[in-house]
Specification:
The structure is a single chain. By secondary structure, this protein is an all-alpha fold. It has five helices and two strands. It has a two-stranded antiparallel ribbon with strand order 1-2. Strand 1 and strand 2 form a beta hairpin. It starts with a helix and ends with a helix.
Length: 140
């Protein structure tokens, strides 16, 4: 059974490769342009790593908050009767988790897009912590 599934997925992969084969040169030129823009403005990677560290820190703080919320709202008495956790608060905490991660992710996305757009229009303003990087980050 595993061999048949392997052959099936291999056939799907071959069909996909054949379908997109003509698009590879365009994708290669796009990738070369993107790498050139990022190399000219390497400071944008500092923001990406900084926001990754912020997201990891937020995840740690959030997990402590969820643990504390569930621990405080879920309780059992001496007779063994337990009350359920406050799922409204847990839902709001999940909402805050995903919202914050989306804000951090989109801030990096918009900063990189602004830097690449600025590099495309005014390549002379490129630099590690140049005007393009700082202004794109401020505009987020």
């Amino acid at each position: 059974f595993a061999g048949v599934m392997g052959l099936l997925f291999f056939a799907i992969g071959v069909c996909y490769a054949r379908a997109v084969w003509s698009r590879i040169p365009f994708a290669a030129v796009n990738m070369t342009t993107a790498v050139t823009a990022i190399k000219a403005n390497l400071g944008v990677t500092v923001f990406a790593y900084l926001f990754t560290i912020l997201a990891a820190g937020w995840s740690l703080i959030w997990s402590i908050a969820v643990s504390g919320t569930i621990g405080e709202t879920y309780s059992c008495n001496a007779a063994g009767v337990c009350t359920s956790a406050n799922y409204g608060l847990v839902f709001l905490l999940f909402l805050s988790f995903f919202f914050t991660h989306q804000v951090l992710q989109n801030s990096v996305h918009v900063t990189v897009a602004g830097v690449v757009g600025n590099w495309w229009v005014a390549p002379s303003e490129s630099g590690c912590c140049g005007r393009a990087v700082c202004n794109s980050f401020i505009r987020t």
